[in-house]
Design a protein that fits this description.
With about 325 residues, the chain is α/β, with parallel strands linked by helices. About 45% of the residues lie in helices and about 15% in strands.
């Protein structure tokens, strides 16, 4: 399986440098698609230099967080009817964007939605929203709920959305009721942030797989102590520990990647989204550091595929 890459945290501002970045990423053979951010005001264009035959995963998290900061009841799981209506209207814009991406060539694989708002979310509200959205034409893309850290009484959340169990219940219920496949994507760092533990990410992968709703896993890391990326447990897309320049406190390692990929089994997509810290880097260095982590994921996926027949055989 070729990897989905969330490259937007490391894209240079200069258009020529950005084009060169995507040309090198395309030539590497490691990646087969991009996670594209959908912001409050809309989605980004397909990057110059990125292969048009790649796949696309669209994430609504940038726009969701921005809208929620100004509108605390905004969200697909909102208890507030008007806040939920605004989130559904926001999703209509994403649908139109997915159609435009598909018309430009890339194949849309998934649309990552989120169970906002922070606190005040309800599983039945999320299920109602997803049932409505599942009836729309998404140009072949599958709707998935990307799990973000749920609230805990002992610390302030990064996102603070619904519990994974509630999201699984909503997704499974909608699929059973409508016949339309809807899934769950686990973001490794956000699950680790929720549980203050790398083990929580693995358990979330196992839970979603056991429920039959696991669609994707996106890898990034986090740290229990402050680093150049920010405060402890920040959701700042840290690289795995083996990547040059990564903090030694990064929780994600090659061993953890192997463990998580093995736990996930068959997926619709697998990928990574990392930042590379505040130190300026040239294009070649960015590509090389991404490749360190990308190769670890790709090798783990290849090993999992080789092992799968022996594991699955009755």
């Amino acid at each position: 399986m070729s990897l989905i890459l969330g490259a937007y945290p490391i894209e240079p501002d200069d258009p020529d440098q950005r084009r060169r970045l995507f040309e090198l990423l395309g030539a590497s053979g490691l990646y087969g698609g991009l996670e594209l951010p959908y912001h409050s005001a809309g989605g980004v264009e397909w990057p110059d230099g990125a292969p048009r035959d790649w796949r696309a995963v669209i994430t609504a998290i940038p726009g969701t967080m921005n809208r929620m900061s100004a509108d605390p009841v905004f969200g697909l799981a909102s208890e507030d009817a008007e806040g939920r209506a605004r989130a559904i209207n926001f999703a209509a814009g994403i649908r139109d964007y997915v159609e435009a991406v598909a018309a430009a060539g890339p194949l849309p694989v998934a649309v990552e939605l989120h169970s906002a708002p922070r606190a005040g979310g309800r599983v039945d509200a999320l299920a109602e929203s997803l049932a409505l959205l599942a009836a729309w034409d998404w140009s072949g893309a599958k709707l998935v709920v990307e799990h973000c850290d749920a609230r805990r009484p002992s610390w302030a959340p990064e996102k603070g959305f619904l519990e994974l169990e509630d999201e699984i219940a909503a997704v499974a219920g909608v699929e059973a009721a409508t016949g339309t496949p809807v899934g769950i994507t686990i973001n490794w760092a956000r699950s680790a942030i929720e549980g203050r533990s790398a083990d929580r990410a693995t358990r979330h992968i196992e839970s979603a797989r056991a429920a039959g709703v696991l669609s994707g896993v996106m890898f990034s890391s986090c740290s229990p102590v402050a680093t150049d990326f920010g405060y402890p447990w920040i959701d700042a897309h840290l690289p795995s520990r083996e990547v040059e320049g990564s903090p030694g406190s990064s929780l994600l390692t090659a061993d953890r990647i192997r463990e998580s990929v093995a736990a996930a089994g068959s997926l619709d997509y697998l990928g990574l989204k990392i930042g590379l810290g505040p130190t300026p880097l040239g294009i070649q260095d960015r590509v090389a550091r991404l490749a360190t982590m990308g190769k670890a994921i790709a090798e783990s996926a290849a090993a999992q595929r080789r092992a799968a027949p022996a594991v699955e055989r009755p």
